[in-house]
Amino acid sequence: MRQRLHIGILAAMAVAGWCVLNPFASSQIALPAQTSSARTAPAPSAPEKTEYTLLFTGDVMLSRAVGSKMATLKDWSLPFRLIADTLRGADLRYCNLECPISDRGANLHHLYSFRADPKSIEGLATAGFNVVSQANNHAYDWGPEALLDSLSRLRAAGIQPVGAGENALAAHYPLLLTVGTLRIAFLAYVNIDPHEAAAGVNRAGVAWLDPAQALADIRFARPLADLVIVCPHWGVEYAAKPSRDQIDLAHQMIDAGADIIVGSHPHVTQPLENYHGHWIAYSLGNFVFDQESPGTHRGLMLKVTVRDRKIADVQPMEIRINSNYQAELASADEHSAQHPVAEKEAAALHSSK
Ligand SMILES: [Zn+2]
Hints:
By secondary structure, the chain is of the alpha/beta class.
């Protein structure tokens, strides 16, 4: 019943038109790097841009030792300095932001409670992140006040959060934005405890990954955009492969209309899979984090090329995290995550079914 009400409200908003399709953000969003929105006709002599590059990175945690290092060095862009140029070469940049950015709230004392200094937002802006997911198991570590403060601070910095909001409708509503003339819908979810972080009808929180709800959200978003991008925070920490349930759900998400799935949470990279021509990255691993376990100081970026409104190419690029918690491209001799490996991993994935 609740779900039907939710979809009914979404459908009513859809018929009201594009300009009100981001009722939870400040306005319709055209990315800052772009000089014109989708509704501004290009000058007659200017050929329309038909190719775009989107960069997806994994878990970014700016609290704990990463936060201490930035504060000690008084350098709030430190984690991104060595990779900012690479990031800025793209038309859109995404990460999973595994902490609230706030000076408010109350520590709920989860096993690890993260909250990043508001100054650390400077690094995300310097790196040019346009979209960050707050649908993860740490966004609620300091409760709803810190989460909502984080969302408003991000928006004020020109960074669009997805997967969290002042209620379930806001958390599940697709983030709709334009990059040039390309229309993109983002959806982000988490199914890692604490479940108390889940947004409710009248309760702020994160978008909980209920499969039926997520598939309904994807079907809702499908006609609103050229690309539907789904970012689940899921899986088992430090596991080399996704579970059968994850694989099945990823396939259902593609079947429901998602163009690409970009997952995170395990802190290590997992195989890429091509399912019916659509890529699924089950886990990109870490991008900026302070963990010590094997594999947690490496991760993948996905370089996605969009041509004529369709994903034409997906290239994994390996990164490593140095002792100052800085993300950098892995050197050539370390660089082993190009397509042949991805295909080998995909083959291994299928053999595990
Ligand atoms: Zn996580």
